[in-house]
């Protein structure tokens, strides 16, 4: 059965209970739902729009991306995955490895810090931020 759960505080149990996660979008920013689903080892079926495409490793695209506004292609992709449990498991595991290797907060933190070091000429951040500009943080 298909269940539309609406907004939930913790999506992880819902992802883990799902056979696959479907995100039929007309547009996306950086789609968080597919990353969360893949982090839980669930395969995803996404509309091939900017923001969704970038969340996938390229080798998953043939199974996981469908043209936007194409319900027949969406139904075919979902049906194909529902009928092939080994493929679902493989796509889920590959998606999980992708998320852990490219979207993990530690990896992202290192990448952002490296970018800042590069932009700042490898100098310490405090050398370009005047203390007069700082405002105290109040709770």
TrEMBL record:
Nucleotidyltransferase recorded as keyword: no
CDD domains tied to this protein: GT4_PimA-like
UniProt keyword annotation of rRNA-binding present: no
Example of a GO MF term: glycosyltransferase activity
Protein keywords: Transferase
PANTHER family: GLYCOSYLTRANSFERASE (PTHR12526), SPORE COAT PROTEIN SA (PTHR12526:SF638)
Protein known as: D-inositol 3-phosphate glycosyltransferase
Record organism: Streptomyces sp. SID14436
């Amino acid at each position: 059965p298909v269940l539309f759960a609406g907004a939930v505080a913790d999506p992880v149990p819902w992802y883990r209970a799902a056979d696959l996660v479907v995100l039929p979008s007309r547009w996306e920013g950086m789609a968080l739902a597919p990353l969360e689903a893949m982090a839980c080892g669930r395969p995803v079926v996404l509309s091939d729009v900017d923001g969704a495409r970038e969340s996938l490793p390229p080798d998953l695209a043939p199974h996981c991306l469908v043209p936007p506004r194409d319900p027949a292609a969406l139904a075919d992709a979902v049906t194909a995955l529902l009928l092939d449990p080994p493929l679902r498991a493989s796509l889920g595991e590959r998606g999980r490895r992708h998320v852990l290797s490219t979207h993990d907060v530690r990896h992202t933190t290192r990448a952002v810090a490296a970018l800042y070091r590069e932009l700042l000429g490898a100098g310490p951040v405090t050398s370009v931020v005047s203390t007069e500009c700082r405002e105290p943080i109040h709770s």
